[in-house]
Amino acid sequence: PGCVNHITVFFPAADCDAPLASALPRSSFSSSSELSSSHGPGFSRLNRRDGAGGWTPLVSNKYQWLQIDLGERMEVTAVATQGGYGSSDWVTSYLLMFSDGGRNWKQYRREESIWGFPGNTNADSVVHYRLQPPFEARFLRFLPLAWNPRGRIGMRIEVYGCAYKSEVVYFDGQSALLYTLDKKPLKPIRDVISLKFKAMQSNGILLHREGQHGNHITLELIKGKLVFFLNSGNAKLPSTIAPVTLTLGSLLDDQHWHSVLIELLDTQVNFTVDKHTHHFQAKGDSSYLDLNFEISFGGIPTPGRSRAFTRKSFHGCLENLYYNGVDVTELAKKHKPQILMMGNVSFSCPQPQTVPVTFLSSRSYLALPGNSGEDKVSVTFQFRTWNRAGHLLFGELRRGSGSFVLFLKDGKLKLSLFQPGQSPRNVTAGAGLNDGQWHSVSFSAKWSHMNVVVDDDTAVQPLVAVLIDSGDTYYFGGCLDNSSGSGCKSPLGGFQGCLRLITIGDKAVDPILVQQGALGSFRDLQIDSCGITDRCLPSYCEHGGECSQSWDTFSCDCLGTGYTGETCHSSLYEQSCEAHKHRGNPSGLYYIDADGSGPLGPFLVYCNMTADAAWTVVRHGGPDAVTLRGAPSGHPRSAVSFAYAADAGQLRASVNLAERCEQRLALRCGTARRPDSRDGTPLSWWVGRTNETHTYWGGSLPDAQKCTCGLEGNCIDSQYYCNCDAGRNEWTSDTIVLSQKEHLPVTQIVMTDAGRPRSEAAYTLGPLLCHGDNFILHFPAFHGELTADVCFFFKTTVSSGQYSYLIFLAPTEVTFSFDVGNGPCEVTVQSPTPFNDNQWHHVRAERNVKGASLQVDQLPQKMQPAPADGHVRLQLNSQLFIGGTATRQRGFLGCIRSLQLNGVALDLEERATVTPGVEPGCAGHCSTYGHLCRNGGRCREKRRGVTCDCAFSAYDGPFCSNGKCDQGAGYRESNIQIKNLVLWHFQAGHIRSSVNPLSYETGIISKNYYFKKQLLKIFRKCPKEIHQMKKHLLISNNSESLRHLKAAGADPDTRRAATSGFTGCLSAVRFGRAAPLKAALRPSGTSRVTVRGHVAPMARCAAGAASGSPARELAPRLAGGAGRSGPADEGEPLVNADRRDSAVIGGNKALNDLVLVIIALDNDTIT
Prior knowledge:
It is a single chain. The protein is mainly beta. Among the domains are: 146 residues, Galactose-binding domain-like (Jelly Rolls); 166 residues, Sandwich (Jelly Rolls); 172 residues, Jelly Rolls (Sandwich), CATH 2.60.120; 159 residues, Jelly Rolls, CATH 2.60.120.1000; 139 residues, Jelly Rolls, CATH 2.60.120; 33 residues, Laminin (Ribbon). Helices cover 5% and strands 37% of the residues. β38 and β39 form a beta hairpin. The longest helix has 10 residues.
């Protein structure tokens, strides 16, 4: 099953925009204070000039508010504001709050993290703001946040909307409704349940319906989250199978209305809470819809017991409860026979009288009078927060008898009592209290003990018998700046969260009196509202990153996801093997992420780096070989499926990104059948990744139905297009290359028989092989509202310019700029060296809800955090400009390649052909990547990269590095083993040895130079390989037979060494620009090298080879021929490979063999 989360936008009715406040009496307006009777709230109606021309409070601060009572719940769709008439008093930004009963206010959020509304810039202009989505409320409050600094707060307002009708039913936690459905012969095509709910508690059943075999659907509120349980109800399955659960919403026990929509259509389930939707596809058939004709709301009644419930029932109100268009509440109010009411069910929703208090910052505090003079301390309250630490309560005892502090630390509640002359007494209770849920706290201290109760967890600490004399003031949330108490010196900081139901001693605290200034004092509080918000709903963590939060922010744990960044957006892996090759990485196992920061995850492939291409090898998990034997005509002889290490989406992205893909099928057959029956019906076929059937068997022409030999015209029987079609009584073979990449990879091969019972065949399907990066793609619509990234390579010689997405270039700076509505934000990376050096530079910029980051090459990444409360959605609706803007100012002069937006490559070349002033292609890759070609290898330009020409190097491989002693290399084809005497004739033309010394991997040996003098140097560099040497090395300047060498000035030891020949290993032999050893191992070319004696390529010189046994092949042949999927020796994947040449390539470690040879030199010939 799969789930998709998306945002649902609600639009109000087209005619729901009538002014609601203008016709209200003055008594419907109230405020926190007023400057004078003529500045009262009754004068705050839009465009009115009576009184002083608007409302102005006595003091202009952030604790002032203007309130409207609409008389009844109305649907509110828009608001408008104006300053005080003819004055310098206006509000530049404000909060909008709403409530049903004038208590427990809720803030309206414009976006996920936008609280404030834009206000006015003068006194008389009107600023309208349409609310999307609208809300229903009776009371509205406007809370000024900022105002004209040269004036005061001044407001005139209007509210727009229409009447709102609803039917409400109230459940007290011990009641329910049972609705009996009409038993119609035909079941409805779909079931639709819609309702709104207001919860008084955090747990309870909202609805339940079940069937005969344990199948059921249940909607339940669990810890403030709404959970929809769906049991498939298959009677054949064991009852232990857990039901499917869909969870949406958070903090839904806030005593405000929330909407629910459930749609059941066959096996499709749509579950919506407020503006968030899960689309769920259930497995199997729709048997879960085979339910009884009863559905209960508010609880699950026990049959036969009218008021007994098996699980916790719902305490709260349901509004506009509909089942398939039937108003269930109206049926209940009219006492229709379809409805059975159990318990105390009423049809009005009581308004909560609880007054919560929000501590907005770590400096917030609430000071309340203590129960002074009593011989005990007793405090109770409830709190909710996301923070793991913070002060909750502090108080000093009278007469200097000590102090106490109650605080959160690591999600646990701790109480410390400080008394003179005694060590602090500590008590700890509760755990995980920073989960955003309401938790009850009771604290008391008296005479000989103190205790703390958190929910159901009680902790008691005995005390030395001493008088506890309660102090005068208790501080909730924090302390005064000049407080000197022991508990206020802690570095934990003040509490951020919500408190409610505070009692001190036996007296309940009324926060409204605090708000009015009649009780205690406070700082930075929001009274009569709990402003907690779930910053992990919706979660901005991508690719499975785990979201966690505090009061102010959230963070993403990307461990194990394969992605990194603030929101786990950026992939840790390259997109292809071609990208690994550009970084100089050797062959090996790598994770690649074909769509970059897109939704597809990384997967493991083998990268085979060859001189011409970087092959991506994707193995399948099917059999290595499939054997077929004769069967009756038309019956399947074999139907084999092949699964891959990557899923369908990953394969599609990888194939689409590649320039070419192929897959080889090696077929051996004896007395085989033809591919078609006599009537032309195909008797064999294969299935590609799109589940389409294909009957062609090779080449690039899907309709050819030919094997490779048929395309090349060299089949053993010219009448047929495949060797196996000849039907000979002998074993033949075919190699089939499938190269239509839109059909690859092969997922199934089916072969039937034409009625030859003794026929036999065997086939092997190779891995999927792809190479090259194909950036020929269309321009997508660039959507980066919440997260977006752009990456590309550039090179230039000019000092400034503009690329795309507002990325600017200066000689030593790259700047990334954007604006989501909070003002311009810029991130700049500075370099110690200029960027206009005609070298390729890689740029990656990312913007998400947490901020922006920019990285250029390997320079340190720069980051710019986003504002805590600001716009988060970047909505772009213009064309994408690359290299400049529509005004063509500060245009870029240079080259750009591999441009990707959100992991999707753009077709720059195609657009360049139709854009004036822009040309496709860009030469000069070797200026940046030429250093990858080593040991004399030459960099050659390709259309989309470089290749290393190793013709003039003694080394081999994709980077001309195979065979180097200090680092080693992988597939070392320039390695041979010599037994006794080997004679080479290398015709060097007119190259003179006096200026072309003979070199090996540790030094240079010129003519007439005795090897013993270099022996110590070689031992130091290659001590392991030096043990392979059996004889000494002699260099001479005469061309006679080696066994009769007469070197000028040779001593007896030299002459004895020359008569025995050499047994050992050679590698990386070079003479000037010539590589005789490399040429000897490739006799198929036009080499002027002849070899006499036994020469064998060796993978590991130190291991040697048994006499007469063939040498083991080092490199698995991954890019040609069919065989086992994947490399022969895999090893561990190279997740973050070093950019230097690694000693481990493809799982083989190359031993670095000593260069030893006996050669005679003259002026024209090397032997």
